[in-house]
Sequence to fold (431 residues):
Amino acid sequence: MYSLVLIVNEKTPNLSIYLLSLVCIGVYVFSMAKILNPSLHPLPILPFILIGIVSIFTIFLHRTNSTKVKILLWIGTISYFISNLAHLPFEPILNLFLDLLIFTIFFLALTFSLEFSTSSLNMPDEPPVQKSPSFLSAYSDHFSYVSKHVLFDYIHLTKPRLMWLLCLVAFAGMAVSARSSLSFNTIVLTLLGGILAIGASGTFNHIFEADLDKNMSRTANRPLATQKISKSNAWIFGITLATASTLIFLTLNLFAALLALSAILYYSVIYTLFLKPNTAQNTVIGGIAGSFPVIIGSVAATATITTDAILLAILIFFWTPAHFYNLALTYKKDFEQSGLPMFPVVHGDAKTRKHILFYFGATLISALLFFFVSGLSLLFFSVNSIFFIVFLWTIILSHYQPSRLTSMRAFYASNLYLGALLISIILEILL
Fold:
């Protein structure tokens, strides 16, 4: 019934938002296409620029948006006509930066227009989020009482839901760094060491936040919060995982082992104990932890940090707030009650939604730079073009229909975007 009411009462984007979205999509996809084929004629993008002009007049006619939006649209449209139709004799790198600048202008126009249209919309009071049973909990019904309350509780400590994506990140880091020289042995050892490092980080996070977890509905059923596992046993488990991870990475090289230990310490101590409870920028600074697997993968495969790996790490760094802020919006009340200064708690829903777009725009720019440097081709181009549109649309809907449902939809879309992007990188390089 609640979902039905939400559908009936939903607010949809106005015409100018649809038009601006099309402009951003057209400019971005054409910029990627020019990397594939630098001699590509700008004629295919003309309809999108005309749409941009129509957008300007639509905004004026509807008397919406601020002057800065109108100025940005005029600057972006004129700049695109000059840069693409005049065939300016720039080097490819200069053309790329000019395209990035123009895309940034249009994307900022979209962001500010959304802010103007939806800043007064906030999350409605909704029933508590009902967590569906996880695969592990559902499957454990077929096991004994001991298995359910021991084995699966210890697995819970390792945060297995994070592993698949972080393993993909490490795999992509290996692939873009080593290319065809990547060995099967390196892949297996790096992923195994990474799984153990992630498990250790998750376990220490559970230990340090055990008391905090009791006060949040999202985390109240965690093994340490419910005292199914003692802290002393959790410490032994976490240290064992960290030690095993370090020893595995040592078989590859010392640098990789030190980076893995640094990643564990950064997430467990710096993020969990210092950043998360003390600053609203905890997710942004904590995004370094999400970038670590790329660097670790690069070092494990090549003993060095390559340019491609650095650019991919930057992409993931910017993606992290665009991803996690959606979850923070969903569980805002939980964070507020626990006293954690998450961004939505400190700055409100509207500013959080705006910053999601800021960081998503930075992610797209990073993806374009990575595409330019990495030498990837059609598969990456296609995947990035399709899935960024999906992610963008869920973000726009979360602006116009702010709810836990739309925020979680954007959260899952962000996972889909990055996961698909990483798989495309791995497949294109190794197959």
Q: What stands out?
A: The longest helix spans residues 343-374. Residues 158 and 198 are 7 Å apart (CA to CA). The mean pLDDT is 85.
